[in-house]
Structures are given as structure tokens and as C-alpha cells.
């Protein structure tokens, strides 16, 4: 049961719950639970029964799949203010298709899927809100398919930098990272050693500089030249980047975390 007024306020402002009435929200919170995870701790594993969905209050989680060869591939990084696993309610999927692991210290709220579904059956406004969110996620998935369809690892990394940078001056930029570089490498389908080698090569060539939590683009013209692909010479779409530098709605909540 959730009783913390700040967490309750965060839940109520989320689009999945904002259309619920006071009585419905109270009933939902009565079935909800607060969960705290340490960095690298798993919330659930691929194949576990999918009876609940989650809202991230603070921290980051990675959703990943493990191949038959034992290799982990990061499918998505879930950030503060975002929900995950709610789509399984509608597809009636019995088990989680991915594992969920904390990237940093995390605070989550867990919701009962069946209880939420029962409320939706009598609340069309909440249903419309969910459809809007699914539409946004579909556009994000299309952007990621475009990025990951670039076959060359260096081109994927360069395109990522171009799409996520904040321009500084005429010929410089900066990419703020809120996830470890090993997680970013997995999201881009690049082996860690290859990612490290590509980064070092660009540092040596004077294209970028590395600092804690950021990649500084020292020569934007060289970065475009290095990309050497048509997308680099067009306006770069940044509608839904793989990383986020702004604060999510729930970050204002004062909960201790690393």
C-alpha cells in the first residue's frame, strides 16, 4: 500500500493514472507496493510470471534479454517517471519477455495488473491516455529501428552522437550520458571492446573528448565527415533520443538515492 503523499502525487500526475477518480486511485494504491533496488539488483527475470507493472520514481533500470549463448542485450533503459511492463496486460502475455535490472539505486512502485485492467473497463478517458502513450512509444521504436539498421558499428555510434548532442557554439557539442557506457554500447548493438576502441580512435583524432557522464564533441565538422553517410548531411531528428538530459516529472521528489 502506498501512503507517502509525494509518491502518491507523482503517481497521480502520470498519464496512466491521471484520469482515474479519487476512489479508483485509492483502490489502486491499496494494491500497490513501493520497491527499492540496489544498483545491479534484478527486479524480475525473463520468463517470470507477469502479474504486475511498474513506475520508476527514481533511478534507472535496464530491460534486457539473454540469448541462448548467454549474452545479454539491452532492449530499453527505463528512466524516472516512466512505466514498463504495462503492455503485457493488454496482450495477456503470461511471462515477462525480458529481465529488469537496476542500473543505479532505484525506487519503484509496483501495480497489480488485473486490478488496473478492471478499472480501465469503466474509464474510457484512461484508455485514451494509454493509446496516446503507445503511439509515442511506437514512434520511438521506429526511430530506433532506423538507428540499429545501420550495419556499421562506427556509423551507429556517430549517428547516436549526432542525434543526441546539444550544440555549443558553431563547431562544438556535448552529449550528456545518464547511463553507463557499457549499457549504451549494448543499446547500440556494439560489443564493449569495439565501443571502447571507437571512442579512443575519435579522441585521438580530436573529434571528441571524454569526461564523467558526458561526451564532448570538439570538432563537429570532423564528426559529420567521419559519419560519411547521407543521414549525417540532413537535419538530424531528435524527437525521442536514447538518452535524456532533462528531468522527468518525478525527479522533484525528495527520496535519497545515489
From TrEMBL:
It comes from the Bacteria. InterPro entries: cNMP-bd_dom (IPR000595), cNMP-bd_dom_sf (IPR018490), Env_Response_Regulators (IPR050397), HTH_CRP (IPR012318), RmlC-like_jellyroll (IPR014710), WH-like_DNA-bd_sf (IPR036388), WH_DNA-bd_sf (IPR036390). The keyword Amino-acid biosynthesis does not apply. Residues 16-125 form the Cyclic nucleotide-binding domain. GO terms for cellular component: cytosol. Transmembrane segments: none annotated. Keywords: DNA-binding, Transcription, Transcription regulation. SMART domains: cNMP, HTH_CRP. Residues 151-221 form the HTH crp-type domain. One of its GO terms (molecular function) is DNA binding. This is Transcriptional regulator, Crp/Fnr family.
